[in-house]
Amino acid sequence: MAQVISPDEIYTAEVVRPSSWTSYLPAILAIVGALVMLVLRIEIGQRFISDGALMMVALACYIFAALLQLTNLYAPSEMSRKIGLWSAALGVFFNLSSWFVRWVGAYDWEMAKMRASGNLEEPWVFRYIPFANLYDLSLAFAFGAGIATLLLARRRNFQVLAAFTLPLAALILTLARFIGGEFIDLPPVLDSYWRPIHVGVASLSYGVALVCFAIAVIYLLKDKVKVEAMAIWSSIFGLLVIATISKFSVLTQMIYRSGIFLPNAGGGKPFSAPFRLEVPWVGEALVISAVLLAGVIVSFLVYVYHQNETAKSVGHALLKLALIAQVVAIALLVGGIRGSSDVPAKLTSQLAADPSQYVIAGRAIAERQQLTAAEYSALSPVQLEQMGRQYVQMNGERLYLSLNTNPVELAGLLTALAATFFVILFAFRTERLRERLPSLESLDGLMYKTACLAFAGLAMLLITGAIWANESWGRPWGFDSKETGALVAWLTYAGFLHTRISRGWTGRSSAYFAVVGFLLVIFTYLGVSYLLPGLHSYA
Amino acid sequence: MSAIKDTFSPEEAKDLARSGSTPAVNQIVNFLSSVRFGVALLITLVVLSIIGMVIIQQNVQGFDSYYASLTPAERTVYSALGILDIYHSWYYNVLLLILSLNIILASIDRFPTAWKYIASPKRKATKDWLLNQKVSESLNLPADVESAAVEHVKRVFESERLKTEVSESETIEYGLDEEGRKDFSNVVLRKQVVVFGESGRFNRIGAYIVHVALLTLFLGHFVALRTGFDADVRMIPGDESDQIQMIQFNLDKRERFNVQLPFSIETTDIQQKLIDPKGSIDVPNTIDWRTQIKIKDPQYGETVADVSLNKPFSYRGYRFFQASAITMGSARNIDVQLTSQADGSQTTVTIPRNGSTKLADGTTVEFQEFLPDFVFGAEGKPDTRSGEYNNPVAVLGVTPPNSERTRVFAFAGSIAENIPVGAPKLGYKWRLSNYEKSPFAHVLSIKYDPYNGAFIAWYFGGVGLMGALVFVFAFAHRRVWALVEPNPFGGYAVTLGGDTNRNDAAFEERFARLVDKLGTRS
């Protein structure tokens, strides 16, 4: 039977100091274990467990550990605390193992291609280090967050952080799952020893920024920021996600259209088709979610500014309904995509009903052809429509739906869902929860420390990237969108540190800075890759 | 009447306040050097950078189609505001300049205070002051003599890697009269011994090293931008040129200018290493591109160098980088199989691009041209339909001994012998049995940076910045004072106090260890 002890013994032990090297044991074992897995993969070969399977196990461990830590907040138990900690360590172990196994897998994959064509060259092993695309970076990012959590969890009173950081790490791995783990042909410019340095620093500093963000959220909660205010922000985020996905069609047409794939004849990652296909009922479910979230915002604004208790009650009820609606929408989306069949016929009938989609697709095709401004301007709508029709004629029969076509949209919806869930959780016995959290002073100190690390890490990221760019094409800084994104995030953390010095902005003000800093990091990590053109579009 | 006026009207008071306040210049300098102003600049920079990130800039791929999609009004407004090239706009540069000024002034303003910690650390402390530090503790040492107590404290401090200094001083105190007030006629001299220990004092100037590194970075980058330029050059094997092309972006127009080099460059070889040598020469199938160049410099003679991806070559302030390739299919070397018409014997010869070989009978075979997708052109001349290797042909110049050169076509695929280009010639049937794929040309980009501004910026400034940040955040200036006084009840009373500029938790642990080692709490 689990030994139930008082919360004081578990979470309020502020003075508990980590005991020597044994406090590092979970982190050490996770890393050493992953190295053993690497050796086993090399010895056993391709019969060994795949990197994708290991990633899924890591995801399960992170979710399990997060659940235990969350449960522990409300019903403290020494046993579940320990199991939670070791599950997190296991998650880090599988996460890193997946990354290592992928390294060997990438080597085997290219070697098989080279040997099959009679090429006997033996490229250096760092060519295959898994820092080639967003999937690889996501694995490393989640590892960065996991290992930072384990290191912080050395102090018992900080183990509560795992309840907030591990769900985020799990979200990143979920995103990786949607991105798809197909190996890619490495763009030659990435074959540099600077890549592991630059991207390694990126994933670790992103991981630290994530932990800093989690601490900031905990700080705000502890500092008695109203849960309703948090709900307003999380609902705004959810609304923005719903409004922008599917090329803005959800709120304007009440339709959700999913991206479509065209298979890659070379066996690599499939190509994104310039068309999208409607998934039934998802648009309607998302609109209902959006309406409920808007209701949450209005109700809680009334409560926050007029102290209206009825509005508060209504807001909380709407928030719970919004959670249900979001779950239903995501379930419909996943079910709709997975159960889809006869995509070509559906697309044909959709296009017959709305031929203007040919023009939109034609424009996307023209953009990929890198035409000059004059050539692009010269294209008439008829020509664009013709390009779209030609594409369907040539490839229509091979098009298919996949969850991997919309990784950022799915991740956005899941993040919005997680945000709604956490706000509801925070609203449940809030005062009791606050009591369990570490003191404001120690949270502030830890937030400052992690922000310093994130700041230094992002500086290294920028500098190693610039040196690499200078070595590769003599242009250390070109204001590429990813470069600028990282610079903006770094400047925000610089602002965090300097406002502490000049204005004594500690605590809540610092926490807001940390939240903004992490949002910018996430925008650089995902938004820039998927939304903006640039040199880093591969990652 | 007194010379000093002691009553003022409100207006006079305002004037006086103004005249007594800081001069305007000082106010401006104070404002420019304030961290608050620095933070405001950072926020402005962040906002402008986000605008530049979201709106496609003129040198970014995809700009043309974006620019074409803008309405004339949008084009006019965006161009006027410089939004389409925001990072090179005057206001962005001015902002960077003011930020640099802010960093310099803020550093100058605050450096003396920081330097005080190093040059003249506070060695003396009173009991009250010590008890108000971040951490403090009162102890009693069971020593017989003061020197033993001080020595013990010193040793404990040193065991915790603190650099120690002992200072003695005398303080003047006054006795109290019968009513408990200070009796200034009753002077009591009290001897004080303070053991001061510290570590990492140079951490106090870490922030200034960060700022110096940042300024070096800015300055180096500025010098590189102002004194250098970017250009490119097409490298066709066998070609030689003493000119390179500089590109300037002007919205959707790209203007090219020729730049004269002080030397000439000859392309001696280009190679494309492929994953699958039989596959395409597209980027996904490529491991590396290598260009071999020969520099002919009237001043320094000839230099041969290789330029590969991620392996640039520097020469007299010019840096050559592998940039792209013109993917018209060609061959780096070819294997030609010759079947004798006389006896049916077969010979295979390998010929490099622009090279030749000699057969056993003295015939010279030159590799003149490679057509990847052979076709007869409009005038009936041999040509290529595309850059793909659909129907590759090597065009050879064959010169038998004592005879004239004849053009011969060696096809990779089968071709009817009854058409002229496929017919055996000069006693042989010619067949292209193998070839190493290579593009028609490489394009090298060239960065001219006569003062090595980029190198200084990123290797000195950038690496310095990384080192400085590690120095700032990984270390801390820790100070501990111990005031040793005789205890009226025996032994010596020690009042400990300490502070740190970073990492309070670790310092508290260290302080607790010090206390444990020193002895009993009083």
Give the helices and strands, then pairings:
The complex is a heterodimer of chains A (539) and B (522).
Chain A lengths: L6 H5 L13 H20 L6 H24 L3 H39 L17 H19 L9 H18 L14 H29 L4 H27 L3 E6 L8 E8 L3 H25 L2 H30 L4 H11 L2 H13 L4 H6 L2 H15 L4 E2 L5 H21 L2 H7 L3 H34 L7 H22 L5 H24 L8
Antiparallel strand pairs in A: 1-2, 1-3
Helix pairs in contact in A: 2-4, 3-4, 3-6, 4-5, 5-6, 5-7, 6-15, 7-17, 7-19, 8-9, 8-15, 9-10, 10-15, 12-14, 17-18, 18-19
Chain B lengths: L9 H11 L3 H9 L2 H20 L8 H7 L2 H10 L8 H30 L7 H5 L3 E7 L4 H14 L3 E14 L5 E18 L6 H22 L1 E7 L4 E11 L2 E22 L11 E12 L3 E8 L4 E3 L2 E23 L5 E7 L3 E3 L5 E8 L2 E3 L5 E3 L8 E7 L6 E6 L16 E21 L4 H22 L3 E9 L5 E9 L3 H15 L1 E2 L1
Antiparallel strand pairs in B: 1-20, 1-21, 2-3, 3-19, 4-5, 4-18, 5-6, 6-7, 7-8, 9-10, 10-11, 10-18, 12-13, 13-16, 14-15, 16-17, 19-20
Helix pairs in contact in B: 3-6, 6-9, 9-10
Biggest sheet descriptor of chain B: 9 strands, antiparallel
Kindly report the average pLDDT value of chain B.
Answer: 87
Residue share in β-strands of chain A: under 5%
Tell me the total number of β-strands of chain A.
3
Number of helices of chain B: 11
Main sheet strand line-up of chain A: 2-1-3
User: What is the string of SSEs of chain A from the N terminus onward?
Assistant: HHHHHHHHEEHHHHHHEHHHHH
For the sheet with most strands of chain A, the description reads: 3 strands, antiparallel
Number of strands of chain B: 21
Shape of chain A: globular
Radius of gyration of chain B: 40 Å
Radius of gyration of chain A: 24 Å
Helix content of chain A: over 70%
Average pLDDT reading of chain A:
88
User: What structural category arises from helix and sheet content of chain A?
Assistant: mainly alpha
How far apart, in Å, are the first and last alpha carbons of chain B? 63 Å
**How would you describe the shape of chain B?**
elongated
The protein's oligomeric status is: heterodimer
Low-confidence regions of chain A? 1-16
Please tally the helical runs of chain A, counting DSSP H or I stretches of 4 or more residues. 19
